[in-house]
Specification:
heterodimer, A: alpha+beta, Nuclear Transport Factor 2, Chain: A, eight-stranded mixed β-sheet, B: 143 residues, alpha+beta, 8 strands, 43% strand
Chain lengths: 144, 143
């Protein structure tokens, strides 16, 4: 259970998106130590280190990403907040603009415990820029 | 179970039964279905097209429902799209002949209801995971 109000959860999530876009390690502080992460093709991971591993999968390829903060739709549902939104960025030289290109639309399901994020499930097509070559960025032996 | 969750569970069952007309009736007159992986929105009779396409390609199509969340008239579902590719899969980029391979792909659906009917259905599948599982290698322009 989380004692945070919906407004405080949403403020924390805006901070999450901003820190994640800037690649700042403080983003890890928003997660519980045993946070559960899901991202298509990455699969499931547990712990803050899993988030680090997830980010490393983009190293050398992701030039920038920016979530469209003003167009995020937050849907509070008890300890969960679902976020629909778009992002834009550049991956391996290919640009995407969510809402205009095929990639970049996402739906995240966050679960809170106490005052931090306990689970983060990200749903999107990870072929952001329509390239698809690195779809097995984290190896093939993953439970999708 | 709330009335809205029951309505959505029924809609999934109607789709699983390949009841195309019944699926369309789950929506309001102006209801929409958006495949967020490609940014395409369907409305009216076209709503049934998506069920037809996947029922043809995956005769054993199954939606494994994991978690439901509700906020007012919004219902969110985490699920997996499962099936065996035994028929032609018609996609905007072309038709993929049957491969005999199995699909088991993550998805999240966001429904907004009005009086128990679907006003909007935003579907967030991972299209390229499905294509990878089918052994399809799309061109650089992607899917």
């Amino acid at each position: 259970m989380s004692a945070l109000t919906d407004d405080k959860k949403i403020a924390l999530l805006l901070e999450y998106f901003r820190l994640a876009d800037q690649g700042r390690p403080e983003v890890l502080e928003l997660f519980h130590e045993d946070v559960e992460l899901y991202f298509p093709k990455f699969g499931f991971g547990v712990g803050r280190q899993a988030f680090v591993e997830f980010v490393r999968g983009f190293e050398g390829a992701l030039e920038f990403i920016r979530h469209d903060y003003d167009n995020l739709t937050f849907i509070p549902a008890g300890d969960h907040i679902v976020v629909e939104g778009t992002s834009q960025g550049k991956l391996s030289g290919h640009t995407w603009v969510g809402g205009e290109t095929s990639g970049g639309r996402f739906c995240n399901v966050f679960t809170f415990r106490d005052d931090r994020i306990a689970t983060l499930h990200i749903y999107l097509d990870p072929d952001y820029a329509g390239e698809d070559a690195p779809r097995f960025r984290w190896g093939r032996h993953r439970r999708w | 179970m709330t009335a809205n969750e029951a309505a959505i569970r029924n809609a999934y069952q109607v789709a699983e039964n390949k009841d195309v007309a019944g699926w369309v009736r789950c929506f309001t007159e102006t209801g929409t279905f958006t495949d967020e992986s490609i940014g395409v929105t369907y409305q009216g009779e076209e709503l049934g097209r998506t069920v037809e396409v996947y029922a043809t390609a995956f005769p054993d199509m199954h939606r494994e429902l994991f978690r439901f969340f509700e906020a007012g008239d919004t219902v969110i579902v985490e699920l997996a799209l499962q099936g065996t590719h035994k028929g032609p899969l018609a996609l905007p980029a072309g038709t993929v002949p049957a491969t005999g391979k199995r699909m088991d792909a993550p998805c999240c659906d966001v429904f907004r209801l009005v009086d128990g009917k679907i006003q909007s259905f935003n579907c967030y599948p991972s299209g390229t995971i499905i294509l990878a599982q089918l052994g399809v290698f799309p061109s650089r322009s992607g899917v």
